[in-house]
Amino acid sequence: MTPAPHRSHTDDLLSFIAASPSPYHVVASAAQRLEKAGFRELRGTDDWTGATGGLFVSRAGALIAWYVPEDAPAHTPFRIVGTHTDSPNLRIKPAPDTGTAGWRQIGVEIYGGVPLNTWLDRDLGISGRLALRGPDGVPRSRLVQIDEPLLRVPQLAIHLDRSVNEGVALDRQRHIAPIWALGDPREGELVRRVAAAAGEDPADVLGWDLMLHDIQPPGYLGVDREFVVASRLDNQVSVHAGVTALVDAATGSTQPAFIPVLAAFDHEEVGSGSETGAQSPLLERILSRSVSARGGGDEDWSRALAGAFCVSADMAHAVHPNYSERHDPDHCPLPNGGPTIKVNVNQRYATDSTGIAMFTAAAERVGAPWQPFVSNNAMPCGTSIGPLTAARLGVTTVDVGVPGLSMHSAREMCGVSDPGYLAAILATIMVGD
Q1: What pLDDT, in 10s, does the model give residues 251-265?
Q2: 213-245: per-residue pLDDT in tens?
């Protein structure tokens, strides 16, 4: 297991993560790379008739991108890579300005499965989007990213809590409001600070989707720098791999035999139940419309789905050396051993033998290793967008992921080679080589 093969891919991944502290930034970063490769954005109100080449649709924190080869029949099957753009974090409340005991603080809500102790004593910035007053009364949106040490959730000193190392859980309802100044709360202060950073008038701010992020940049770890350490590896590793694979499929010397698709959904960490989540009809409607745009009807749509295949790519658990008893003793993935294929017979993952065969055949073609993963029977199993996509579209789906440690932490860890292995396998599946 050598870290050498894909370090250049991982260097690019680190740049992607640094530029993408929120789901909205993930979409912007992905769109920028797609446009550089010749893709063009379509609006829902556009006429899509006859559209070929690289195309994408973005909506808030979700992006659907696909490539249509010239003269591709309307019934050409899809090769879909499904991912998600969101990560567990702390999100700023609608009335954020608060404080106590002479401190000015910011009210936050817990988003997803957050190990709260990992957010303590870290320098935090603010990112997300502002909804602003626009011309003719039509709101406009503006991304904001403040990579400055503005806030901090201080841990209680051990002198005041001798039980802190005894596994006492942090109260989820209190004690997580980050501090950022001394004095009494000042209504509107946060909005003024964020609007100024975005170069906007605070009076034009009508709403926001703002969150906190750890400002420590991503990097490498280990004696031979064989590990990646960064925020939001779950699941920007997979989004970046999917974008890379789609661009490779669209610009390579071999025209794809299928319609390669990247589906990057939002809100997976909280159940995917939103207009931009995997439970929504977003992907189904866009793919169906792409068939219609090439002159296809219901029969073509059914044929395109019947021959379709989906890879649901999400981070996976590497075996933890200090808690190996929490893992299945016969399934212990390690970093730099290749992506894992995730199996759960209770359908928390959608993998079956057909999906395994498709993925492993592609891995063999590019010379990439892979590892099996199954949860310990005594531990609850996580899930992904795989079962949702399989159930909604009725397509064969395999759940895979790069193995890592510290999942959902403010700072996660994986092997340096695995993201590149994943991208290479995905590109091969998309092309159908």
Answers
A1: 999 999 999 999 999
A2: 999 999 999 999 999 999 999 999 999 999 999
Annotate 272-288 with DSSP letters as a single string.
S-STTSTTSSHHHHHHH
Sheet holding 396-401, edge to edge: 40-41, 53-59, 62-68, 259-265, 78-84, 309-313, 396-401, 340-342, 371-373
Domain made up of 89-214: CATH architecture: Roll (2.30)
Q: What's domain 7-87+231-431's superfamily in CATH?
A: Zn peptidases (3.40.630.10)
Strand 205-214 with 124-132, pairing: antiparallel
pTM: 0.96
Q: Are 268 and 276 in contact (CB under 8 A)?
A: no
The one-letter code for the residue type at 422 is: L
Report domain extents, the chain. 7-87+231-431, 89-214
State percent of the chain over pLDDT 70. Answer: 97
Q: CA 256 to CA 81: how far, in whole Å?
A: 14
Instruction: Judge whether 7-87+231-431 and 89-214 match in fold.
Output: no
DSSP 375: B
Question: pLDDT-based confidence at 352, cuts 50/70/90?
Answer: very high
Query: What separation in angstroms does the CA of 394 have from each of 133, 164, 294, 311, 387?
Result: 42, 48, 22, 13, 10
Mean pLDDT, residues 128-156 taken together: 94
